[in-house]
Each structure stands twice: as structure tokens, then as C-alpha cells.
Amino acid sequence: MNPNLSRLHPYPFEKLTKLKAGVQPPAGLSSSALSIGEPKHESPAFVKEVIAANLDRLANYPTTKGMDELREAIAAWATRRFELAPGSLTAGNHVVPVNGTREAIFSLVQAVVDNTRPARVVSPNPFYQIYEGAALLAGATPHYVACDAGNGFIPDFDQVPAEVWRDTQVLFLCSPGNPSGAVIPRQTLARVIELADEHDFIICSDECYSELYPQEGQAPEGLLQTCAAIGRDDFARCVVFHSLSKRSNLPGLRSGFVAGDAAILRDYLRYRTYHGSAMPIQHQVASIAAWQDESHVTENRAAYRAKFEAVVPILRQVMEVDFPDAGFYLWPRTPVDDETFARELSARQNVHVLPGRYLSRTVDGYNPGEHRVRMALVAPLADCIEGAERIVRFVRSL
């Protein structure tokens, strides 16, 4: 077996299951699941119809590169959304369709890391655990940059030691952030690009929550958008990951894309050809329809906005909690340690949240996720309100 498998940490939800072993919630209270970030809003009907109308395509092998029409739809969407120079992001050279961002993040790291020399993968802390797992299985060493209230939950990249940058091959960004929802501003993104040029590493920006923002007309900036703003229309050393899972409530479609530096994506596509990851054709056709429609995304944002506007004031009665810049998570401080909070909340109120330490690593004795929990406002509005009210009762009982 690959010896690096032994370096993998248990997944956060494995830890949560172990934490709650033996817990018996009150029989009279229904379960309120705020722990898993799985969209629960209705998938668009027109996407389902497209899939149904193209089931005969099951008889065809899909190509790894994907249909021309899908890559063209993605390039057109990204150019509009991120205000790119017309023709700078081309369907043929700058876009690779993928089976969701999780698969793409993992496989891209395997393709780009050169483990014949010292290799570091830098990521925010807390983080999406695939960043770490991808680094470990590629033979690289993770380096974690703390994100906490002191830095607005945005990594301070100027605090990373020079010797770390010297060996860095991949830097992960997550904007809007998971779990904080913090959006990295243009100034910081431009600084990261300078660092990538200086130290010759690839910036991988995970932007899968980018379309869930509170105010229409105030969409978060993406890495390619910053590239365009500073005249870097070749997107050198920059790749972004996007998905229909959160944007369009289609997590089961497993549809997303990687876009950016053409040279990186050329070699990444060669890797994927051997890896055997090709999106089913009926899913590609459905994805075209989803990327070409914005009305359902606007409705999706409105549904999340209503939940945040209802839930945050309730929780603020007993907890320190802020509206996120974007995304669908809350990241409140807990009045007791986060593991105790999560276990007892489950036991007393049948409400389930994820301890923040499970999303983070302890570095030099400090874990930036401790005394916080992640709450995903993915359930229907009434369920989120009821869950918040039970949390208030629980905190007042401590």
C-alpha cells in the first residue's frame, strides 16, 4: 500500500460520529442537522428535464476534455462573471470540466507536485480537508496559515517564513472561506500573485461558494478577476475551481470546472486522460443549461439571505456570531469548548453542529478552530429557525 495513506487524518464527520457515540437525543425532538454542508434547496427543474431528455447518451463514452459546447458555456460564464478580457479565457485552452471540485482539487495536486524535491502545499487553517489529503498523498508537506478573528479570517501571507515559500509548490486559497465565509480582497490576491511569481508556485483558488453572497450586485472577487484587473490576462500560475453543487443546488450532478493557466491545464488534462475521470454526457448537457441560467441562482441567494437574516439575530441572544461575507455557514464562538458544545447540544436538543477543531490543525499549540463550531444553514427556513431557537435554549441551560 502507498505508505502516505497512513498520514491521512480521519475525516471531520468520522470524528463527529465518534464524539457522539452513545448519545441519545430526546425522543420528542426531531433531528436538526446543521453539521453537513449539503445543499437542500430544490434542484432546478429544467436541469432534471435536460438529463431525462438525454438519457440515450448513456450509450456513448464521454471524452476527458468534455464537450466543446460545455467548455464554451463555462468560458462564457466565467468571462461575464469575473469581468475578464474578451477572448482571454478560451474554451480550448483554459477550461477543463471536472466531476466536482473535490475530485479536481485532489487530482490537480497529484499532477503538479514534484516530490523529487522538497514540496510544500500551503493552505488556510481551518481548511477543506481535501487540501491536506491531496498534499500528503502527493508526497508533499502541508503548511497551515492560521485564519482567526485577529486577521479577519484571511491568511496573513506575509507572516509565512521565507524558507516555507522556497519549497512551496501549491498555495490553496478558499474564498469565500469554508467555514468563515470571509472573502479575500483584491489587494491580498494581487499580493499572492506577486509571491507566486517570486517563489514559482501555483495558486489554486477554491471558489465553490462564490455565487452565494448576500447583496445582489456585490459578488465576491475571484482570482482570475484580479488577474484581469492587473493585466495578467494569461493567468500565469493561477487556477480556479468552480462547481454547480452550491451555486445550483446540484451536488449529485458532480459537475464543475478548473480554469486558468493554459500550460498547467494542458498537463493536467493529460493526467486526467489516464486517471479516467470523464463527466457523463447527459450531465455535461445539463451543466450547459445550468451555467447559462442565472435566475435560479438569484432565487437560491434569496433563500439563503432569508435564513441568515432570521437565524443570526436569534443566535446573537447567547453567542458571538457574525454574518458571513458569503457562503452558507455560520462560524460562532462557543461558551464552552467546541467538542463539549457539539456533543451536549446533540444530547439535549438533537441539534448537530461540527466542532471547529475538526476543521483545523494545531500548530505550535494553537488551533484556530477551537471554541468555534460550523453551522450550515442548508435546511428549510423553518427548520433553521427551530434549530437556532433550540441552540439558544441549550446555551441558556449551561
Describe this structure in words.
The chain has 398 residues and is an alpha/beta fold. The protein has two domains: 135 residues, Alpha-Beta Complex (Aspartate Aminotransferase, domain 1), CATH 3.90.1150.10; 248 residues, 3-Layer(aba) Sandwich (Aspartate Aminotransferase, domain 2), CATH 3.40.640. It has 14 helices and twelve strands. The chain has a seven-stranded mixed β-sheet, sandwiched between helices. Strands 9-12-11 form a three-stranded antiparallel β-sheet. The chain has a two-stranded parallel sheet with strand order 1-10. β3, α5 and β4 form a beta-alpha-beta unit.
Report the span from N to C terminus.
Answer: 47 Å
Residue share in β-strands? 5-15%
Low-confidence stretches: none
The percent range for helix content is 25-40%
* Count of the separate structural domains: 2
- Strand arrangement, major sheet: 2-8-7-6-5-3-4
- Could you name the CATH topology of the largest domain? Aspartate Aminotransferase, domain 2
